[in-house]
Give the backbone structure.
Amino acid sequence: MLRYGSDMIDTTTPSLNPQSLEQELSEALERADSDAATVVPILRHVLSNEDNSLFGDEIVARIRGMVRHLAVQLLDRLESGAGEHVPSEHGDQRVAQLADRLHARFGTDPVLTPLLQAQISAADSDLSALAMRFLAAQARHGQSQRRMKLPLFELPGDHLHHALLAAQSIEPASGEAAAAAAQHVRREYDEAATRLGLASLLLARMGAGAAEALAINHAGVALFTSALALGSGLDRDAAVLTTHETQAVRLALALRSAGSKPDMVRQQCLALHPDIDFPDQFDGIGPDRAAALLAAGSSLDGY
């Protein structure tokens, strides 16, 4: 049986046919969706209250620090308009008001993984240079996390868009000045130069070799989740969420739909969740069928 959280999918019955297994997987996805739907509301509650029993103190502190850092950067931009960016001091109330409207999702990624080392040593000079740029971005990301910071221009494009909308809604940042500041930020922004943008470029440059990134212990979390998103069609935030124990069934289907062999799917699921009992019958689920089952459930995009 495939265990995720406190639920189990009983797939060890000898008479279980492929249709029954697919039904079990579909029902498991529905339960996983219900669990995933609670993430953002709970996190919002925890960030605005002292009750952090559902999230560790360190995680809550880091997210609070990073969201505050984003809020300060946005207020700096709005107050300087479309002109030169000049950092300034902002009252706690204004920063907190904006921080409450921002959503960000973070992960701690190892910097130099075996896969990245191999790409840095590649004979392809463009690939090697791209791997080095990603390595530098990973190092900066780790440093920013330790400082509880998140540079504004490291946000994915859609997150930056929503952050700017939130910033423009704050008084007195309104009207033409706020619009001009937001436009200036958008002109400066280069998504391809962000850490996640570089990850996508690196995987694309690797071609067929990018399949190696579907091994989390070999690629590291950052490249693994980026490769999983690209291969399965999931939003990257949703791909990150699949690594949680309540989403084990989604992780298995996403890996299979991305082209991983059943043995590799089993390996990755067990690497993240050593206590699960993986169903032998899963080997009969092909990539196309896994993709169909994944698509039939809630996509979790923007969850």
